[in-house]
Amino acid sequence: MKRVDDFRLRFGKQELVPIMIGGMGVDISSAELSLEAARLGGIGHISDAMLPTVADRRYDTDFVKTKLTQYKYNLDNSDKSGIKFDLGQVAESTRLHVSKTMEAKRGSGMIFLNVMEKLTMNAPKETLKVRLDSALSAGIDGITLAAGLHLGSFAMMEDHPRFRDAKLGIIVSSLRALQLFLRKNSRSNRLPDYIVVEGPLAGGHLGFGMDWAEYDLRTITQEVMAYLKAEKLDIPVIPAGGIFTGSDATGFLEMGAAAVQVATRFTVAKECGLPGDVQQEYFKASESDIEVNGVSPTGYPMRMLKHSPAIGSGIRPGCESYGYILDANGKCSYIDSYNREVALHPDEKKVQVFDKTCLCTHMRNFKLWTCGHYTYRLKDTTHKLADGSYQVLSAEHVFKDYQFSTDNKIALPE
Ligand SMILES: Cc1cc2nc3c(=O)[nH]c(=O)nc-3n(C[C@H](O)[C@H](O)[C@H](O)COP(=O)(O)O)c2cc1C
């Protein structure tokens, strides 16, 4: 019987264990988690979401304080169009996080950066270019273009000396999205090095509408692989979303996938960026605690625990400190929802906002518990301790369970 370890992901001459830990925004897929994946011969991701605040927490910088000081005068103004990121600071925070992570890398694996186009930062093109260029300059092994269509992102990197040497991949959720990307991108004369096909059971934002349950990863993966074969395009395909056991992964590899991208199983690893009390919420979750809803102001459906503190929270928009979702005109749909509730309840000190959430502040503070569909199975991957809590795992344990297990078995920790 085959297992994941019988397969290898090949990039030219380089051979990797075909397990990629997906990017998980605002430092959930931490440097420590990505370093473990690389040490064990696979691929890990760090995320480029909100790097100035991540850098402040990790490297003792004060990017957020500097921005807030500059824009404090605007806190009570609902027009946020004047709040701009300092591109030098965006570059510096990316350089810090990427270079410090890459310096610590050991082993034969790789570390990629998950880059979300939907973080429009009130200047979508300028900020994205700085993030991409700085990551390449700081030595990242590869970049995975996520959340957004990224039709112009390759062109943005074209003039960078590492454009052809770094691995560049895209995440798509349909064959149509892939075709659109390839058509728009043909001018750059550079194909993606890998394609992550993310199905509807993934965590984070989904590339589907609220009819997500009508799609399935296996079908989309097969469609993408058949298309690439017909076009004679030899690009590794990496399915993601709901691959929970080593046997699930092996099934995709036997089908012709080059690797798998997984995330949910690692949310309860000690190297993951989620605080311990939040990890216990993930362990405890039952299927009915998980929903896909429309509270993210990005406009994409997002999967999360229903009792995330972010849902219903009516905090003042945090754009003067953060402002990552502000579009090219300085707008974010949470600001409109918040203003509506304030106008409806003029005498209340604290309003509640249910239709949208302040994504920046809540993701930054781990109050929005985004998760994969199979989060309710995490309790079966560990031991329940005498005090009723669940034993947190090591990333190595979870990685090796994917790599070596057979028969749909999940190895419990020592
Ligand atoms: C907590 C969490 C946060 C995530 N955040 C992001 C993200 O910021 N960007 C992204 O492209 N994908 C994100 N994802 C999706 C994962 O990278 C991955 O593709 C997917 O969850 C794999 O499915 P699985 O969780 O069922 O293994 C997130 C997933 C989880 C569980």
Gist of the model:
With 414 residues, this protein is of the alpha/beta class.
Describe the structure in your own words:
The protein is of the alpha/beta class and 414 residues long. The protein has a domain at 4-274 and 390-404: TIM Barrel, CATH 3.20.20.70. It has helices at residues 31-39, 51-59, 63-71, 87-103, 124-137, 153-157, 175-185, 217-230, 246-254, 276-284, 333-344, 359-364, 395-404; strands at 9-11, 14-16, 19-21, 43-47, 110-116, 142-146, 167-172, 194-198, 204-205, 237-240, 260-262, 290-293, 302-305, 312-314, 351-353. It has a six-stranded parallel sheet. Helix 6 (153-157) links the parallel strand 6 and strand 7. Helix 4 (87-103) packs parallel to helix 5 (124-137). The two termini are 25 Å apart. The structure holds flavin mononucleotide.
